[in-house]
Amino acid sequence: MAATANHPVDGSYAMTMRDGTNPEDSSSASNEPLDATIVDEAGDTGLTNRQAYNVVSDTVVGANLRVKDNLFQAIAIAACMVIGAGIGAAVVRERLPGALVGGFAGLVFGFFGSGIFLMIFRAVKHIRGRHD
């Protein structure tokens, strides 16, 4: 027997069985087992839980938990920041303010540039069916 929960507006919960009996009612209690559905790890789509999370986080919303992607993005942002600070210090007469502004511009450019690269890279991998 399978059970369903009814959620009325007042916040109380009422449990009814498929045959209409109340499992909390002692007169309808029986010793027969309840039906249970076991979902395998791959699910109906053939994807593991981790692959399904990667698809959702890459295409809809969510944090990217891939260490390689995060390491690539950190290195790209740091490199763009250093390059931006160097260009800013070289172009402006006062080196420190130029380096700070250039470093910030490099940080923003590295953040968006590496993010857009990873977005396109992961989209191509998902199109090819690789959800690792």
Key terms:
single chain; 132 residues; two-stranded antiparallel sheet; 3 helices
Describe this structure in words.
There is one protein chain. The chain has helices at 49-59, 67-91, 95-127; strands spanning 3-6, 14-17. The chain is mainly α. The chain has 2 domains: 1-37, no CATH class; 50-127, no CATH class. Strands 1-2 form a two-stranded antiparallel sheet. Helix 2 (67-91) packs antiparallel against helix 3. The longest helix is centred in the C-terminal third of the chain and has 33 residues, at 95-127. The chain starts with a strand and ends in a 5-residue tail after the last helix. The model has no long low-confidence stretch (mean pLDDT 78).
User: What number is the mean pLDDT?
Assistant: 78
Helix and strand composition category: mainly alpha
Write the H/E string, N to C. EEHHH
Rg over CA atoms: 28 Å
How is this structure best summarized?
The protein is mainly alpha-helical and 132 residues long.
